[in-house]
Amino acid sequence: MEILKRSLILVPMCLLVVTVHAQSNAVLQKAFHNSYTDELNKNYTAAINDISPYYTDNSYEINIRLGWLHYLNQNYNASKNYYQKAVTLKPSSIEAKFGFVKPLSFLQNWDKVLEQYMAILKIDPQNTQASYWAGIIYYNRKQYDASIRLFKMVATLYPYDYDGNHMLGWSLLMNGKKDEAKGYFEKALIIKPGDDSSADGLSKCR
Fold first, then answer.
1. How does pLDDT run across 89-138, given as a tens digit for each residue?
2. Global pTM?
3. From CA 151, how far away is CA 182, in angstroms rounded?
4. Is the distance from CB of 160 to CB of 175 less than 8 angstroms?
5. What angle do CA 102, 197, 190 make, to 5 degrees?
């Protein structure tokens, strides 16, 4: 009989929790809906204000949304902070890391940008977007062995990709591997005939 009484008490409590959660979710859905509408109208401050009252540290969805909206509103420090929280909340999230890269790039924090790309590649070793842009950073730093490795991944997975072939050609050329570079410049020129940069690289291979 005692067990039955406890069960009768617990059932209404469970129903109350479910009801409160459903109501909270409905409120949040409306806030996000309003936020999307304001974003569409390029009213980014209003889009931020639509969901800010419901902010909680442990909400991945709100943090990543505010990261994006502050980025659009050109408040890159705020955007960086929200994306950082999203990355912390979901360490395996590739979308959060790619989002984090956006404000970091505007703030020219290239070490942190590279850190995010390499973290993405640990999760997804064949992610060509992360490979390409990490390769660009290494190329600009004249670390050609690293850029060659990353651009080769892009060109291997996407042999008809202009960017991968073009940058692999330049990385090989700058690393003194003219014979190898020549073939990639020739491929790049087939994909994008008349390209000045690839033509320049090819002429330097002779």
1. 999 999 999 999 999 999 999 999 999 999 999 999 999 999 999 999 99
2. 0.86
3. 15
4. no
5. 105
What is the 3 state secondary structure string of 122-181? Answer: HHCCCCHHHHHHHHHHHHHCCCHHHHHHHHHHHHHHCCCCHHHHHHHHHHHHHCCCHHHH
Cα 37-89-81 angle, rounded to 5 deg: 65
Cα separation, 201 vs 43, whole angstroms: 45
**Nearest C-alpha neighbor of 94 from the set 52, 64, 59, 138:** 64
pLDDT tens sequence across 139-155: 999 999 999 999 999 99
Length of the chain: 206
Q: Which residues contact 141 (CB under 8 A, 6 or more apart)?
A: none
Is there a contact between 109 and 96 (Cβ–Cβ < 8 Å)? Answer: no
Rounded to whole angstroms, how far apart are CA atoms 6 and 101?
A: 52
